[in-house]
Design goal:
Layout lengths: L18 E5 L6 E5 L49 E4 L4 E4 L2 E2 H7 L2 H10 L5 H12 L6 H8 L7 H12 L8 H4 L3 H4 L1 H26 L13 H10 L11 H14 L6 H10 L5 H12 L7 H12 L5 H9 L18 H17 L4 H14 L1 H5 L6 H11 L7 H22 L53
Antiparallel strand pairs: 1-2, 3-4, 4-5
Helix pairs in contact: 1-10, 2-10, 2-19, 3-8, 5-8, 5-12, 8-9, 8-19, 9-10, 10-15, 10-19, 11-12, 11-19, 12-19, 13-18, 15-18
Bound molecules: carboxymethyl coenzyme *A.
Length: 486
């Protein structure tokens, strides 16, 4: 689509105003749109209406106002937010005003979660109460445990996680606006707070269960006397040792820093899903299931898993140039590189590089790190990547750390989604507390067939069955031992 730029009027002849003037050349109508916080409301454009031009499709709805088309939300702000700020050009990230580097060095995950959700760093007694509540909401109902246990041994842990949260909605009828009234979370803030601590508390338990199913071991009950990440490691790894067993505190600390780094990242794919789904006022468990499903994809939280598969496929340093050539020919994607918002550097990837060394000191150096370093160095010197402003993102290093710590590959996205729940809940709460919640309902631009009349099947032209219309080459398992052939 061509973007036309009008020749600029010198600002010296204009008194600067905080607005833009848009002239609809179809009608000559001009509108002034106020700029607030360097943004304009897309709804302003719906004032621009015109009669249908000759031969124009009625589906364009031209007399009903101009639509703003922005596939994949490249330049559309979905919310006004007080939670997280990213300066993509400078590679800067802050939560509620605090730079991520300071939080990673000085805070803890639970404290950062409180900051994100409630807006300020907690006082000592607030922090104690907050941590106590979360660590005392870690138990999962027995019948829900049984349901989770029924999942197959080879289930992807993210599908277990998503299913468990979707099911939790059925276990909390008092928290369900569909049953209790649509204004439940507008009116009842203590109930909202309770769901927040329940979700954060149960997340690590469900995550550990997803892992224990994989290794075919019984679930380990949570321990409320441990820190958030210590308890996760405990529930994953406790076997026949005495109950006083504790995970390595250095790894619990490293994981806590990783959790801080992953706690929020404003309107990414999954958090915007949380806001989108939450705008319908459905219960928060269903919202978390939907947001987690969005995170599971390889272009989002699944990237850390994809990075390791990619590095393993490259195998050794001498294969790096060939692989990069394939990326440049667009036959491969360089997972863990690039970002929609960051254009210089991802500040999280710098901190995470230091955590990697902390973990390697305990667990030994991950052999794929040599390939990762050679690949990163070669890509950062290559014009293809520099001209497109592609550099390592958080997922490039996090996967190597998780691998060094011995987590299975498909568990990596779980280690991303558990901390990201703080961001989901902060945005869910902000939306419902704003008093301005409206259901998210994007527009579309219809480019399909115009109106036509139904033709009965016998009167229709015969059409070949192809892969395009969906029914060709669908693989079926058919036993060779059947009497009747299909
Ligand atoms: N490898 C190779 N080429 C790339 C990559 C990559 N990782 N990322 C972008 N490009 C190319 C892309 O092909 C395009 O080239 P051209 O101009 O020739 O068509 C150009 O760079 C611009 O890319 P884009 O597709 O417009 O970028 P985007 O903002 O739509 O996508 C992204 C952002 C993160 C989805 C993408 O960079 C990507 O697919 N990266 C790999 C997956 C990944 O690491 N995801 C984790 C993101 S960070 C954590 C999170 O949010 O979950």
């Amino acid at each position: 689509m061509a973007i036309m730029t009008a020749s600029a009027v010198p600002t010296s002849v204009l008194k600067p105003k905080n607005s833009i003037t848009v002239i609809d050349n179809r009608t000559g109508k001009s509108i002034d749109i106020e700029i607030t916080d360097n943004s304009i409301p897309a709804t302003a454009f719906s004032q621009l209406k015109a009669p249908y031009a000759d031969g124009e499709r009625p589906e364009n709805d031209t007399p009903y106002g101009l639509r703003v088309l922005d596939p994949s939300f490249i330049n559309t702000a979905m919310i006004q937010s007080e939670i997280t700020y990213i300066d993509g050009n400078k590679g800067f990230l802050m939560h509620r005003g605090y730079p991520i580097e300071q939080l990673a060095e000085k805070s803890s995950y639970l404290e950062t979660a409180y900051l994100l959700i409630y807006g300020e760093l907690p006082g000592k007694s607030q922090l104690d109460l907050w941590s106590w509540e979360i660590m005392h909401h870690t138990f999962v109902a027995d019948d829900l445990q049984q349901m989770i246990r029924q999942m197959r041994y080879d289930s992807h842990p993210m599908s277990v996680f998503i299913s468990a949260f979707a099911a939790m909605s059925a276990f909390a009828p008092e928290a369900n606006p569909a049953l209790q009234g649509s204004d439940l979370y507008i009116m009842n803030k203590p109930l909202m707070n309770k769901q927040i601590v329940r979700i954060l508390g149960k997340a690590t338990t469900v995550a550990a269960m997803a892992y224990r199913i994989r290794i075919n071991r019984p679930f380990t009950p949570p321990r409320s006397d441990l820190s958030y990440t210590e308890n996760l490691l405990y529930m994953m790894d406790h076997m026949a040792e005495p109950n006083s067993y504790r995970p390595d505190p250095r790894l619990a600390k490293a994981l806590d820093i990783l959790f801080i780094l992953h706690a929020d990242h404003e309107m990414n794919c999954s958090t915007s899903t949380m806001v989108h789904v939450g705008s319908s006022l459905v219960d928060p468990y269903s919202c978390v299931a939907a947001a987690s499903a969005a995170l599971y994809g390889p272009l989002h939280g699944g990237a850390n898993e994809a990075v390791i598969r990619m590095l393993a496929k490259i195998g050794s340093v001498e294969n790096v140039p060939d692989f990069l050539q394939r990326v440049k020919e667009k036959k491969e994607l360089l997972f863990g590189f690039g970002h929609r918002v960051y254009r210089e550097t991802d500040p999280r990837s710098k901190v995470i590089r230091e955590v990697a060394d902390m973990v390697f000191d305990v667990c030994g150096r991950e052999p794929l790190i040599e390939v990762a370093i050679a690949l990163k160095d070669a890509a950062l010197k290559d014009e293809y990547f520099t001209s497109r402003k592609l550099f390592p993102n958080v997922d490039y290093w996090s996967g190597l750390i998780y691998k060094a710590m011995g987590f299975p590959l498909d568990f990596f996205p779980v280690l991303f989604v558990v901390p990201r729940l703080a961001g989901y809940l902060a945005h869910w709460k902000q939306q419902l507390d704003s008093g301005k919640n409206k259901i998210s309902r994007p527009r579309q631009v219809y480019i399909g067939k115009g109106r036509r009349d139904y033709i009965p099947v016998d009167a229709r032209e015969e059409r070949p069955i192809t892969a395009q219309n969906g029914l060709n080459a669908i693989p079926h398992y058919i036993s060779k031992r059947r009497l009747t052939k299909i």
